[in-house]
Amino acid sequence: MPLFTAISGRHVSSLRPLILIVFLVTTLIHPATGSVQFEIANGETICFGTYALVKSVITSNFDLIDDEGSPESFSAQISDPAGKVVWSSDYGASEGSFRWEGEGRYELCFDNKDTTGDGVGDDYHVGFALRTVPIVQDPAGAAGEKNSMTSQLISSMSQLLDQLEDISDHQTYMRARESTHRELSENIFARVVRWTLLEGIVLLFVAGGQVMYLRKFFEKKRVL
Question: What integer pLDDT is reported at residue 167 of this predicted model?
Fold first, then answer.
């Protein structure tokens, strides 16, 4: 049965959940910001901002791409339009996630403080995502059991999509980490090959020199 024929016989109120779901999906599949990767030096603070024109869900996550070392000097925090810190990660945490509802400008800052005092410390390769998604409201309001169930459905779908975005972001971070490890392995392999070739050439010269020396030694011994 065609979709239009199946829908045309229904009451408009029964189609409201379907309409809201379609609108929610089409809104959420276009997040304001995708995952980004950057490098933060020792003693440096880098901030990124997003602006919500209407009441929205602001989500963010981060992951340290580097595996070596302990990020004791690294942390992340998010500030609301008033400059108040609404979320922060603990120093030493290699990953974190955030979800908040509000409107206005929100700022995500990464801090790699100088713990040694001499400017010598670790630099970190960070991957993060910062998204702003408008909250979808039920056009009929919150009155009635059906509308309440519709609102709960919208909220559940929003949280589910946030989790899917987090999984997608972490897969991106894992691919970046894999690329870094592959590049490191290829560099090590290239160095091993170069040193092996150099060692083979040196051994050939040493072996040739020994053959020449022994040949001259026996020739002198025959003359004597």
Answer: 80
d(CA 208, CA 224): 25
Q: Give the helix/strand (H/E) hosting 26.
A: helix 12-28
CB 62 within 8 A of CB 76: yes
Do 81 and 106 meet the contact criterion of CB atoms below 8 Å apart? Answer: yes
Cβ–Cβ under 8 Å, residues 158 and 101: no
Name the β-bridge partners of 128: 36, 62
Cα–Cα distance measured from residue 106 to residue 83, given in angstroms and rounded to the nearest whole number: 8
Phi, psi of 139, deg, nearest 5: -60, -25
Instruction: Tell me if residue 179 falls in helix, strand or coil.
Output: helix
Residue 10: count of CB within 10 angstroms of its CB: 10
Q: Is there a contact between 100 and 50 (Cβ–Cβ < 8 Å)?
A: no
What are the pLDDT digits (tens) for 130-166? 888 887 765 555 555 555 677 677 777 777 877 787 7
89 and 110 in contact (C-beta within 8 Å)? no
Share of the chain above pLDDT 90, in %: 15
* Residue with the two structure tokens 């010269």: 205
Q: Give the burial string for 114-125 (b: 16+ CB within 10 Å, else e).
A: eeeeeeebbebb
Task: For the sheet with 85-88, list strands across it.
Answer: 35-40, 124-134, 44-64, 95-112, 74-79, 85-88
Tokens of residue 27, six digits: 């809104």
